[in-house]
């Protein structure tokens, strides 16, 4: 049971909730704090004070005062009008994470929602009522308005949720469980949709996948080192300590661990003096990607525990301030940075693939790893496919965060495009996994040619695990099937039972 209190949610906890289906519970102290902020909202309504989002319009309509008897209608109109997302639905894992993160943000006690709203969000997670939310349509400020509006529609019984792969009306599922949908009161619609939980949910699941891919990239690279009779001296700890980046040193240490006991890897001068950069510089390049991951993790875990709506309530209601915590710039930057860091793992992997298949570079392996060069093409076009993906990544890696477009009649005149950055990062991560699957396939076959019994014990274990999914390249076949199987295996091996 994961207890949410608005302050200490981590990526590891989130992974357990999303992929291990761990139930969540609301921390009583956090609920009490939320109740105080709700009392402040109700006091504003009673006293007919003019406060943005409670009894005013939204965006450019912020100067329009709303009568007290219309505050309920105001909130419902808000989420209906803002639920204009476009495109294919986000994965269920992402929308479940959005519900968790939105609940956690409201539990900080600055948003002014009733306990009923908090409970229904928890119910959505615990009952696996994963909202159907279109993937496009957010500018990333004022937060993720369109995606979060689709989430809020579920709470009021007007949205759709996934049930056993089907889209069904949330009202029907609430009724099935004997639970009444929420009737929104003053400020609650705004509190539900004014935040960064779409980009942060996508970003969090991106990070979780990326972290595991970075680890998998190391043993896959290790297998390539063996296949190419690579030199292990380049991973000597003294080399990396001399530079000073701990992430680089840690990659080198793990590479030596994977290669320990190998009779295929060589020492300096045995076969050649030094390897090409894609082999020799694995710690430097992969280590730099780990530096990116460290930055991204820090920013995500701050945002996962942040109050990101507007206005925010402080001092038990004595202070209510309109600010801009909904602006997604920190996550936009983090996702753009993640795109670059992950794209590089694919770039260097594709160069290792080229070395495995190119007869001028593969240290005596058959051309394109073909069992009958000329009659059979072997892995020739697999390298093409990998090259296509890394080229696509270069386009996707263009930063979304440097763009902005004014909205709401120029009231909201600078936006983050953070959700676009997160979505593109997700696409890059998928491409990276596919490129690594190609390298794993080629290295698996190349090590079979070299003699798997001479492999390092740790890498032999991985070789055998891959053998349960694919077989060496003994004849030409439809290799896309092998790569699809390996892609799925890498995902499951990393602890993801479905695409995040």
Automatic annotation (TrEMBL):
- Which residues in this protein are found as 2,3-didehydroalanine (Ser)? 142
Reactions this protein catalyses:
L-histidine = trans-urocanate + NH4(+)
The Enzyme Commission number assigned here is: 4.3.1.3
The Swiss-Prot or TrEMBL record describes its family as follows:
Belongs to the PAL/histidase family.
Q: Name one GO molecular function term.
A: histidine ammonia-lyase activity
* The protein's enzyme class: lyase
Q: In which pathway does it act?
A: Amino-acid degradation; L-histidine degradation into L-glutamate; N-formimidoyl-L-glutamate from L-histidine: step 1/3
Where is the organism placed in the taxonomic lineage, from the top? Bacteria, Bacillati, Bacillota, Bacilli, Bacillales
Q: What NCBIfam families does the annotation carry?
A: hutH, PRK09367.1
Q: Which domain of life is it from?
A: Bacteria
Major subcellular location class: cytoplasm
PROSITE patterns reported for this sequence: PAL_HISTIDASE (PS00488)
| Compartment list | Cytoplasm
Has the keyword Lyase been applied to this entry? yes
Q: What is this protein called?
A: Histidine ammonia-lyase
Q: Which UniProt keywords apply?
A: Cytoplasm, Histidine metabolism, Lyase
Q: Where is this cross-link: 5-imidazolinone (Ala-Gly)?
A: 141-143
Q: How is it modified after translation?
A: Contains an active site 4-methylidene-imidazol-5-one (MIO), which is formed autocatalytically by cyclization and dehydration of residues Ala-Ser-Gly.
